[in-house]
Amino acid sequence: MSAMAFVSITPLGDGESVSCYVSRAVKVIKESGLEWQLTPMGTIIEGDRLEDVLAVINKASEILEECNRLSISIKIDYRRDRAGGLDKKVKSVLEKL
């Protein structure tokens, strides 16, 4: 099994630059032990179990407790028939170019 989530956690109403908040959320993801990849628009997290991925997303949002309002976007690819995919998906597309 493999669960991959694209997540974007953004505080609302805290000014134009939110990188100081985003970096704190990404630190939680980094320290989780799960595979992850930062992109300009969000972070991809991959784990064996959907529960593990969702728990990390929850913890990353809770670390921003001083923010009264968060916008959280999540897109999940949950595969029960195979493991791993973070690098495989990109490699598959690049091979077809």
UniProtKB/TrEMBL annotation:
Which Pfam families does this chain map to?
Thiamine_BP (PF01910)
Q: Which InterPro entries match?
A: MTH1187/YkoF-like, Thiamine_BP, UPF0045_domain
PANTHER family linked to this entry: UPF0045 PROTEIN ECM15
What is the protein's given name? Thiamine-binding protein domain-containing protein
Stretches assigned to the Thiamine-binding protein domain = 6-93
The entry's cellular-component GO terms read: cytosol
Please give the family membership noted in the entry. Answer: Belongs to the UPF0045 family.
Tell me which domain of life the UniProt entry assigns to the organism this sequence originates from.
Answer: Bacteria
- Source organism lineage? Bacteria, Pseudomonadati, Deferribacterota, Deferribacteres, Deferribacterales
What NCBIfam families is this protein classified in?
MTH1187 family thiamine-binding protein
